[in-house]
Design brief:
Length: 197
């Protein structure tokens, strides 16, 4: 399983750009990837997105940073020999779509990842239900954002601003706890699994 988190200049993969990617191989969690890039020429930039990821417009347009195309080439190279490349994360369709659009912009002719993904939101929702609990709801929809999933798994909220590597690490830890009932990463070892107490 390839756990991934993308930070972007906005929410729409066809008109916004990747600004950073964090990832790790769940089977070998010391095998990690983190890189940043500048936005592609003409990409839209949302102030709200920058408030989430902590980048400034100057940082994501810095001509000294690698291009989005170079970043996605590096990510493809890093992931090419992983034994399983099923993408996983919180709202991972967002990350998958950004990587796919960036890959197309970079001229990749073969997309190596499946359309199907593993979403931590769904895993957590299912965990609630199978343990006889009602998942939290707000405004008539699931309220299981990343912080709620982390808290359910006994982990404090992710630090702000949001970083792609800390996001990927958080996703991997909750996947391990929800699927296998065990801790995974040393970064979270001090936090107990609530349903194991």
């Amino acid at each position: 399983m390839l756990v991934v988190d993308v930070e972007a200049s906005g929410t729409e993969a066809h008109k916004h750009s990747i600004v950073s990617v964090g990832a790790l191989d769940l089977a070998n969690p010391t095998n990690r990837f983190y890189e940043e890039c500048r936005v592609w020429d003409g990409a839209h930039i949302m102030d709200e997105a920058l408030a989430v990821n902590g980048f400034t417009k100057e940082q994501i347009t810095d001509p000294k940073k690698q291009s989005e195309a170079d970043l996605v080439h590096a990510f493809m190279h890093w992931s090419k020999d992983l034994p399983e490349k099923t993408l996983a994360g919180q709202n991972v369709s967002f990350d998958r779509d950004f990587l796919k659009y960036a890959s197309e912009r970079a001229g990749h002719t073969e997309w190596p990842f499946a359309y199907r993904t593993i979403d931590t939101h769904t895993l957590c929702y299912m965990h609630y239900v199978t343990h006889g609990k009602q998942p939290p709801v707000m405004k008539n929809r699931s309220a299981l954002d990343l912080d709620a999933v982390l808290n359910y798994c006994g982990i404090p909220e992710e630090p702000h601003p949001h970083n792609a590597l800390t996001g990927a690490l958080s996703h991997a830890e909750v996947i391990s706890r929800l699927l296998y009932g065990r801790k995974l990463l040393p970064e979270f070892s001090q936090f107990e699994i609530p349903w194991k107490k």
